[in-house]
Amino acid sequence: xxxxxxxxxxxxxxDQFLRLAKTPPDEALLRRYxxxxxxxxxxxxxxxAERRWVTxxxxxxxxxxxxxQALEEELGKSVDWxxxxxxxxxxxxxxxxxxxxxxxxIFNLLQPSWPFRFAVAAMIVLALYGTLWLIGRAxxxxxxxxxxxxxxxxxxxxxxxxxxxxxxxxxSGGAAALLAAPKDWLGLFPRYDxxxxxxAMTHFQSAFENAPDPFQRAEIAFFLAKACLMxxxxxxxxxxxxxxxxxxxxxxxxxxxxxxxxLQEKN
Length: 267
Description:
Elements (H helix, E strand, L loop, with lengths): L1 H9 L3 H7 L6 H18 L3 H13 L1 H14 L25 H10 L3 H25 L14 H9 L4 H14 L2 E4 L2 E5 L1 H17 L3 H17 L3 H13 L6 H14 L1
Antiparallel strand pairs: 1-2
Helix pairs in contact: 1-4, 3-5, 4-5, 8-9, 9-10, 10-11, 11-12, 12-13
C-alpha cells in the first residue's frame, strides 16, 4: 500500500493533492510516526514511503494535523512532525494555536532557511561586537593610547634576553612586567594591570638609579613615563619625560618631546 502511495506522491497532481486532503488520518501510523519523531525511530521501523505519506498528509490534510495535535495533547508533549522527513530541516515551530489552518501554513512558508538565519545571526554578533568595541574605547582614559608600548615590544623582548648586569637585570624585570600589563577580553575593554605596572616601576626605578650612562637612563626614564601613563598619572609621566630630555642624548629624545607635547595639549 505504501509503495503505491510513494508512486502516487512522485507523480502527484493538483487533483491528487485534493484527494489527499480528504484522506482520513491513519491513527496507528501517526502514533508510530509520533514515536519516531520523539527519537524512537529504531522501534517504529518506518519506511521511506510511510514517512513521505505521513508528512505529505500532515502538510496537505487538516484532519491529519488535527489528529497530530490530539496526540500531542493526549501524551502531553509538543513534537515537531518534520523531525522524520526525508530531508529534514530545523524549523521554528509556531504556537499550538497557529499550527492548523491557513495561519499555520503561512507561518511555515515564511520560515527562513538556515543559511539566511546564519547570516542574520552573524550580522547580529558582529554588530554587538562592534558596539562593545566602541563602548570599550569610549570609556578608556585619555592617556590609555599614549601609554601603548606595542611598537617597542621587540626592543623590550631583546633587552630581557640580553640582561647581564644588575641594572640590566632590573630593566629586564621591569620590561617583562610592563609587557604583561596590557589586558583585554577578545579585544574588548582594554585595560592595564595595576599590579604589573607597579612591579615594572619598582624595577625601572632601581635600574635608573644604577644605570652607568645617560643612554640607559634615558631609555629607562622613557618606559617609566609609559608606566605612569598606564596608571593615568600624566603629571608623573611628564616628570620622567623631562628626565629623558635631561640626559641630553639622542635615544628616545624625539619620542619624549612628542609625548610631552600631546600631554600639554590635553591639559
